[in-house]
Design goal:
By secondary structure, the chain is mainly alpha-helical. Helices cover 72% and strands 0% of the residues. It is elongated, with a radius of gyration of 42 Å. The chain crosses the membrane at residues 49-70, 76-98.
Length: 173
């Protein structure tokens, strides 16, 4: 179907449709970008990130309050630090959402596979249950060892009565 649509698009007797794009198409590999987003989101949720970010903020504030070495590029309201956090949040939120969407997709696939595996296991269990039930029925109809022994004793006694076998001959029981 896609090949047919491509041939139709490339046909010389058909005029090309001019599509207007506001932005050029991105050459980024969406899967690679998604993996990056997952690594980024995973790192932002670690204690190591929180410790480094806290250390950065403390150093920033101390340098700007005390003014060591004549450094005081962001005075008290810390507007530049606030801008830095806003920029970080504006990039972090979409990356975290992208990572969550990818995880949702993986969970959906895993749930589908689990459901299919459960259906197969249920079918196998039902089949084995029917087989065990049929084996139980078949075993009930077969002669047991005690039944066969009693029948052989009865047959031997009958043969002794008819005189075909001498009484008291070697009997293996």
């Amino acid at each position: 179907m896609a090949e047919r649509a491509k041939r139709r698009r490339d046909a010389l007797d058909q005029p090309r449709e001019q599509s207007v794009r506001l932005l050029p198409q991105s050459p980024l590999d969406s899967d690679a970008f998604g993996r990056f987003a997952e690594k980024f989101a995973r790192y932002m949720g670690t204690a190591q990130f929180l410790v480094w970010m806290t250390a950065f903020v403390i150093v920033w504030i101390l340098l700007n309050l005390v003014g060591l070495f004549g450094l005081q590029w962001d005075p008290y309201p810390f507007i530049l630090l606030n801008l830095f956090f806003s920029t970080q949040a504006s990039y972090a939120a979409p990356l975290i959402l992208l990572a969550q969407n990818r995880q949702d997709d993986r969970d959906r696939v895993a749930i589908t596979q689990d459901r299919q595996r459960d259906e197969r296991n249920l079918a196998d269990t039902e089949f084995l249950t029917r087989e065990v039930a049929s084996l139980r029925l078949a075993v009930r109809e077969t002669a047991t060892r005690d039944f066969v022994r009693s029948e052989l004793r009865a047959l031997l006694e009958e043969l002794e009565e008819r005189g075909m076998v001498a009484p008291g001959e070697d009997r293996a029981t």
